[in-house]
């Protein structure tokens, strides 16, 4: 009986191996159903945000402000869930800083708001990246974030409405441009260039960027490693400073809306999406399927580490209210944050030392 | 390029017409290195040019003494360098209003300047600078990498640069000179007063670098004509690349020293008229620079409109006994600054300007320094006022940014405690027109040497 069970297990293993996704299937799935789908969601949510802000400007009620704030949070989800794949047009076309430069330059923004210039989309476009994008909208919609993460609709001035309309229209334009660069044309200087999704999903000798499927897989793994490092050692460690006295609220991302921990979690969710191939209701395969072919235990362990990191980040949230910007000023909050940082760095080491080498096996 | 070739051809013709049919200095080259020679003071013209005529006069004397066979080529050498110790206030981020204090030490610069004197009327001059103790950075443009990327290799923090390398021919009968190669532009105090003994502050100008290239040199050809106490200059030089214009230094980043080669699709015209000697602190000059910058961009399709840079400079100084003053006013215009800003905003890779794409249409810099020279003890205390605004006027959708309207006041002293060695101390405060941004200070002490001060 024992022998039979072993044989059945062996057959199941062989069957599973035989049915394992090929590299091309993984690449196709991740490229179209994770990355492209994320950018399409981003463009769609940004258009919704623009509409919500226009409604708020036309009718500045508390309900409409709440809808605009919700729309901002909803747009933030696909963007932060894309940070494991900040390669391709988002980098080469310089779109990342247009959407998400932080910290916001509040001094300069206040200076602009005091000027007599008519604020249009083109005007904001010319101001520079730290006066447009997500965090400018966030500051105007949510207030300064010091003691609360919202403000009354009556606090919004006419000039702020002008600025909000212009900068959300620009955000919608830039996210649509990003989605278009992945779906239709990755190089505006070359109208015959296809969407980047076609480039990355068709590696080969005639592909100018990815000569093999291994090159694409490495792009995926390096992308995951990049955001793990940024969340642990940039977004979380820098504001914490060396000790509680040197903690710096000005370095916290999304401090006005108290959305920092959701941002970080979604950053790691983007790692999860690339790794497993799961995005929203869509299921894999992702890079995990490749790792499974070499080491099934490792493949499962990495998935567990990713989920654990997301839980540890959410656990930083102070019980009495607030977000990451408040947690780093308490000993308990700092301890929880350090635990998450350690887990993220450990996951980064696993990616570098164990997952990356599987590409060569 | 046609203008450049035409100028070279014309000047070569003039040179040939003036040259004697047989040279008096046709000797075999020697490897003799001679110490710098003191400048004779027998003719007014020899006093005019700080670096050139004095040495050429010395060479002429040598020729007259009958040492013709061993006279040329000669090599002359000078050098200067300094180390800066400083403390300054800065801000952690653009949101912070409380300054933090930083202390710094910088092996700021050591420069080696040499001259190969080829004849009594021609020479090759060059200068090698080692900045910040480093060995070099280079930005490379790779059109075959993805979308055409800018890549930078950094071996260390500083640079080794060759800011000057030019051939100079002088025709004494007509007081005409020709420079061909890479030479300093006669456009601002920072590129005219090139050696530490020429100015009392640690840098000739602290704020020039916020508006134009610091120590600006370019490759090209320049004719110089002296008449009485005046010197006129007319040149054609390599232009700027507007791809690297940035908010924080206006056209300064367009100086194409980042690259191994210089794009020369757009050239610039340089003209000036000088009375006396600005370099020596007793003279005034009016200078003009104009050149398009669009053709020198790497990403050729991002900007199709012209982006001509025009600069007017009035600079100079004078000394009455021990009391002296110097200063400059630079007015600059960037054509289609809003279109350049928009084109730069979407550059990728290392060229990405991030928040620093917006550019002013007109920029202005003013400075005034007063000093008293206690010649007997070689001590020169000074006071200096400088102001720069790179958003003096804007075009289209660009907003005036008061953060770049800067006033700087400083005071300090220069003391040559040894014949060729100096100590400079400078304390400066800086304030911008941006409401809420507090005033900051900077204190520096520089130790250095300047071999040219022996002259």
TrEMBL record, chain A:
Q: Which residues form the Imelysin-like domain?
A: 35-350
What InterPro entries has UniProt attached to this entry? Imelysin-like, Imelysin-like_IrpA, Imelysin_sf
Q: Which UniProt keywords apply?
A: Signal
* GO CC annotations on file: cell envelope
Q: Which Pfam families match?
A: Peptidase_M75
| Region forming the signal peptide | 1-20
Give the protein name, as stated in the record. Answer: Iron-regulated protein A
Biological source species: Bdellovibrio bacteriovorus
From TrEMBL, chain B:
Task: Note down the stretches annotated as region Disordered.
Answer: 17-63
The protein's UniProt keywords, in alphabetical order, are: Signal
Q: Which domain of life is it from?
A: Bacteria
Task: Mark out the compositionally biased spans (Low complexity).
Answer: 17-36
Q: What residue range is the signal peptide?
A: 1-17
According to UniProt, the name of this protein is Porin
**Which portions of the chain have biased composition (kind: Acidic residues)?**
45-54
**Carries keyword Signal?**
yes
List the SUPFAM superfamilies hit by this protein, alphabetically: Porins
